[in-house]
Design a protein that fits this description.
Layout (H helix, E strand, L loop, with lengths): L2 H28 L29 H5 L13 H23 L21 H27 L4 H15 L45 H30 L6 H14 L1 H10 L1 H13 L9 H13 L1 H12 L2 H29 L1
Helix pairs in contact: 1-3, 1-4, 3-4, 4-5, 4-7, 4-10, 5-6, 5-7, 6-7, 6-8, 6-12, 7-8, 7-10, 8-10, 9-10
Length: 354
Amino acid sequence: MSPLLIYYWLAAIFILGTVVGSFINVVIARLPLERSLIWPGSRCGSCFQDIRWYDNIPILSYLWLRGRCRTCGQGFSAGYLGVELVTGLLFAGLFYLEVVLNIHNWPDLGPRGGVIVVPWSWPLILGFMHHAVLLTFLISASGCDLQGREIPFPLTLTGTLIGLMLSMPFAWPWPSTNPLPAPVAWPPSPLPEGIYAWPIWWPLPSWLPAFSWYEGLATGLAGALMGTFLLRAIGFIFGIGAGKEGLGLGDADLMMMVGSFLGWQMVLVAFFVSVGPGLFFGIFQALVRKDNSLPFGPSLAAGSMITCLCWGWIGPKLQILFFWDTMMLILAAASAVFFLGMSLLLRVLNAIKR
């Protein structure tokens, strides 16, 4: 596998990402307004003239026209360029981590003779495509949340349905070929990581065998339910303590979508991981944009992708907890008390400030 070939594929994936980013711009601009994503075609918001195809090439057209309409000279937002560039970079980075480096340790069958055009096996490519679809929805939802403080339900519902459909052919532990550990061992042996990192429960019941489509669907459904109910429960507890809404329904819908792609264990961890990006976004909003409001959607999106890519390091350290029902109930109760206490403290501090 020559470095030149790797650079070629990274460049190709980057270009693909910019094209996807161009469509994401359409989603961000039209979906919150309940407008069609297909008709009419791209046009200037000032003179309403159609944008020609050669003026709609991602990144290049924006730079060539210096961010202005060819007809009337009206400037376009730099956000269009930013979304295309960021999406291209994220696609290339995801490809490099999951296909070139194979950080999930999926089976790499390698080339099978002939001219080497794609030097990686198809399980790696399918795994990348699965997570790239999720990444596309996450970028779209983050853009809508940043722009209008709203995550459209049609976006997250569509993503959830696609995630559930993909869960059936990619049932755990596909594409891993590592042998399954003995279910009676304690402490449990590390589970092999597939596109869906872990099954709905371990050991799997006899009526829910590994690799079966209904085992995959059960894993996706459990992830979607965990995502939506977790965020709604935390928002409800925060509302009781602080006396105001803590998390929007769009955030819960976003994690419902994430769960359908990744499973319930990753959703649970991703919520706590998202605190780190949330602090970063909060500081950026306060210092750069002079805005104290904090849309949590981008933080949840970043936390979800970080958790997905780092699961090989995070998962084995938490496995003993996730399949221990008594400990999970204790942690759930402790977390509820913690969030209630923090929200009450915030309410007291606001009262003292007033």
